[in-house]
Each structure stands twice: as structure tokens, then as C-alpha cells.
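pls read this stuff:
=====
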Amino acid sequence: MSGIDWLAAAGLLLLLEGLLPFAAPALWREGFSRMLALRDGQLRFIGATSMLGGVFLLMLSN
């Protein structure tokens, strides 16, 4: 993977991360406040599941 690929991946990440706050800020704020109420173990599980899903998608793209 070249530097351009990493830059494109970071740009896509920022685009997707900014989509919900731009399109539905109230919904994003409500979801974020719910995440703040979760325990550390629950957040770790969500993070681990997200990372495994990302690895799976990366494996499919090759």
C-alpha cells in the first residue's frame, strides 16, 4: 500500500465519520450521549467488533 492509498483511506474515513453529524446532528448527538453512558467493557466490545469487521472488509477487498 502506497502513501496515496493511506491518504485515500484516511479521507474516506473522515468523509464517512462526518456524514451523520452533517445530515442529522440531533440524532448523532443522541447516539453519542448513549455511548457515553456505556461501561468500558461494552465500549471495548463495540470497538473490537468494529475492528474485526474492518479487517474482514479489508480481506475481502484483496
In short: The chain has three helices and no strands.
